[in-house]
Amino acid sequence: MLFGIALWLFTYYLLNEGLKVPLFNKIPGPVEVITEFFSRDPIWGTSIYTPDFHTNIYVSLQRIFIAFCIATGIGVPLGLFMGWSKTFKDYTFPILETLRPIPILAWVPLAIVMFSGFETPVIFLATLASLFVTTLNTLLGVDSIDESYFRAAHCLGSKPRHVFWHVVVPGSMPFIFTGLQISIGVAWFSLVAAEMISGDFGLGYMIMDSYMVNKYVSMVMAMITLGFVGWITSAMVRIAGNRMMQWRVRALALEGR
Amino acid sequence: MTSSATKGAISIRNVTKIYDPEGVNVMAVDDCSLEIASGEVCMIVGPSGCGKTTLLNAIAGFHSVTKGEIYLDGDLLCGPTKPLAEQGADRVVVFQNGALFPWKTLIDNVAYGPIVQGIMSKSEANEKAADMLAEAGLGDVGKKFPGEVSSGMARRAEIVRALINDPKVLLLDEPYRAMDALTKSIMHESLLEVYDRTKVTIFFITHDLEEAIFLGDRVVVMTTRPAKTKKIVDVNIPRPRSYKTLSSEEFRLLVQEAKEAVHEEAIKAFEAGERELA
Fold first, then answer.
1. In B, which residues are within 8 Å of A247 by CB distance?
2. Closest by Cβ to B145, choosing from A153, A173, A250
3. What is the torsional sign of CA A116, A118, A123, A125?
4. Do the chains contact at A157 and B161, CB–CB below 8 Å?
5. Per-residue pLDDT of chain A (257 residues; tens, 9 = 90+)
6. CATH among 2.160.20.10, 1.20.1080.10, 1.10.3720.10, 1.10.340.30 for A50-254
7. How much is the ipTM here?
8. For residue B19, with 0-12 CB atoms within 10 Å meaning exposed, 13-18 middle and 19 or more buried, which class applies?
9. Is the pTM of this model over 0.80?
10. Which end of chain B is more exposed for a tag (fewer CB within 10 A), N or C?
């Protein structure tokens, strides 16, 4: 993995500072960015030692956390019920499928009109994007459960609530967690988009703000930070998933995966 | 353990099942009657897609019947007034591809039935499950998940999961289909051992004639779709049986007798070339 990172950094260096490809003329090179990143006295005013950098990360993380929790809290039960009850699905699926294809950027004006302040619209947009992904994946998760598990549960004397808790919920877990990983990615994506338009602090705001005042080094720093933080949050979801699905981890391990 | 010896008689009376996918009637079972005594091992053999599983599904309550009735110990399971039998732990199914819950350990799988039926507390059920698994030679793997044990062990655990409910009937739908011959013979002996101990009625669907004769009291050969009983072969080989039975002359003759009946139907089914029905 380290070698992979080094390789990419080297490619970046080569394209930018080594070969001086015209496309990268205005883009700061890796040496410049890294020096600035770890500088106690940054030329452009932002590095890992300056409090505004921390604030931006913290604010974005907090927004992601809230949005992800709301989206998961609503999306998972919604998807489970949709998968479990045909009637419930008949009522909810059309609206979900109509709203889902609307790009998150198209929601921005509505969010600004509906909610006051900076914070709520931004969180709303990230939540919304996440919610669709989580709900749909959970629904697919329930659909993916083999019919024989339902039959087995029934002939062992289950009541509907047992089927729900012992078959529907655990059976859809693998899909739910795949969904949650995508969903946290989508949350970051739409959060940054929202921050760029109507934010106050946050990594997306930092990218846009740096761009406006031609601080390209800070802009690239924010982008790299964003990628890195996004990766960590996604890994956290994956770890949580593996903890909750030991049965799957162990079975896959035996298959050599 | 003798509690199930006096129960579990199934009476299938003139059962017809018509599927209606996209408005085209497909008759899966036609006017089929069969009496299964309590404590009998009844093997159902027939060509692929002939409607054997349809009968099992009707008994288990997964599918309705179109005509006819099925009784269990004289009580109506399904009939004209009630096409779909209620599903219950008195008739537990062991599925073709195995249906242990992969997210539960073997112990939790086995303990599941008594817990959800509310007849045992969680700790009682776990204790009983561990005991029964140990009895079936699975004492060491009780805390493992189904994905971590061999398919033979998983299938055996699935039978234990059925037996813990003290069912009247065990419904097996080609449970050993995907297994190699060696594993299969081990599974057969363990099933015979279970049967000799519990005398539970067994309704067993299979393609494998030798399996049918080795395990069964009677082998019911079904016709190709729509399914009817074509021939019933009585297997009078004394129990307990062991793998030595397999090489006896008696066994060989019975296999031959059944093979002729099945072969005829297999050819008909092949020529009809129809897709298998569930």
1. 102-105, 145-147
2. A250
3. positive
4. no
5. 788 888 888 888 888 777 777 777 777 888 888 888 888 888 777 888 888 889 999 999 999 999 999 999 999 999 999 999 899 999 999 999 999 999 888 998 888 888 888 889 899 999 999 999 999 999 999 999 999 999 999 999 999 999 999 999 999 999 999 999 999 999 998 988 888 887 788 898 899 888 888 888 888 899 999 999 999 999 999 999 999 998 888 888 887 76
6. 1.10.3720.10
7. 0.87
8. middle
9. yes
10. N
